[in-house]
């Protein structure tokens, strides 16, 4: 089944099979009268004690991975101060930066989102707080909800030494406060290259709001963003397609 003919998730492979299984979960929940979302339960975490301080003219870039990039992209597209959020791959080589190869879990890549932001409107530390509060569950190792494999790992791809220092300090802070209970599985990788994903992955949540996978697993993350950070929430998502005209 090709990328455009799959009625479940727009793609084939492992995630397409996950969608079929999810449909049965949804059906069972409906029959039993259970309306609880299968999305990981978000929780509002405290702000980081330290933030990136260096002055930068223009925009800055952050890269986060936490499960399916559709949801992570969808969350950050609703954040004030974010000028672009692009789905892609990070952690591996250019030769293997495709969905089909990344999906095998053997490339070193994680599904990631490159977030371009205006530091005059939102800081890197605030993006980290959103990442840990609403965008994913940082306690899951090499998986996120129904998606399993190292390509769905929780990882911060720091773009410089200061981002690495702030992110590492924040993880230690959250662990010391025992915010999540289980040990945080999020790792930090430095010096990696971000590769943009295929066009059909971009703006997927915005373009497919009623898709079963989006409605059940990913849309609740945007609702958590709105509930936790009303001052940072933007109703109209900033889309990749808008930036390119």
The rough form would be described as globular
Put simply, the count of helices is 8
Query: How many β-strand stretches?
Result: 8
Unreliable parts:
1-14, 20-39
Give the C-level CATH assignment: Alpha Beta
Q: Could you state the order of secondary-structure elements as H and E?
A: HEHEHEHEEEHEEHHH
Number of domains: 1
Distance from first to last alpha carbon: 30 Å
The strands making up the biggest β-sheet line up spatially as 7-6-1-3-2-8
Q: Percentage of helical residues?
A: 25-40%
How many strands, which pairing sense, and closed or not: the largest β-sheet? 6 strands, mixed
Radius of gyration: 17 Å
Q: What do we call the CATH homologous superfamily?
A: Peptide methionine sulphoxide reductase MsrA
Q: Which architecture does the CATH hierarchy give at level 2?
A: 2-Layer Sandwich
What CATH calls the topology is Peptide Methionine Sulfoxide Reductase, Chain A
């Amino acid at each position: 089944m090709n990328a455009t003919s799959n009625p479940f998730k727009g793609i084939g492979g492992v995630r397409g099979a996950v969608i079929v299984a999810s449909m049965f979960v949804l059906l069972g929940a409906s029959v039993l009268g259970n309306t609880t979302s299968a999305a990981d339960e978000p929780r509002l975490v405290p702000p980081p004690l330290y933030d990136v301080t260096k002055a930068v003219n223009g925009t800055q870039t952050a890269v986060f991975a936490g499960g399916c990039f559709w949801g992570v992209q969808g969350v950050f597209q609703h954040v004030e101060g974010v000028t672009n959020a692009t789905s892609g791959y990070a952690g591996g080589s250019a030769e293997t930066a495709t969905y089909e190869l990344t999906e095998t879990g053997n490339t070193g890549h994680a599904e990631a989102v490159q977030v371009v932001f205006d530091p005059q409107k939102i800081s890197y530390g605030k993006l980290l707080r959103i990442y840990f509060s609403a965008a994913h569950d940082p306690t899951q190792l090499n998986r996120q909800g129904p998606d399993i494999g190292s390509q769905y790992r929780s990882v911060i791809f720091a773009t410089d030494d200061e981002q690495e220092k702030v992110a590492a300090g924040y993880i230690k802070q959250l662990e010391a406060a025992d915010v999540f209970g289980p040990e945080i599985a999020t790792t930090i990788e430095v010096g990696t290259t971000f590769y943009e994903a295929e066009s059909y992955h971009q703006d997927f949540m915005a373009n497919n709001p009623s898709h079963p996978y989006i409605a059940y697993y990913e849309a609740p993350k945007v609702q958590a963003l709105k509930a936790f950070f009303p001052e940072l929430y933007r109703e109209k998502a900033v889309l990749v397609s808008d930036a390119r005209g």
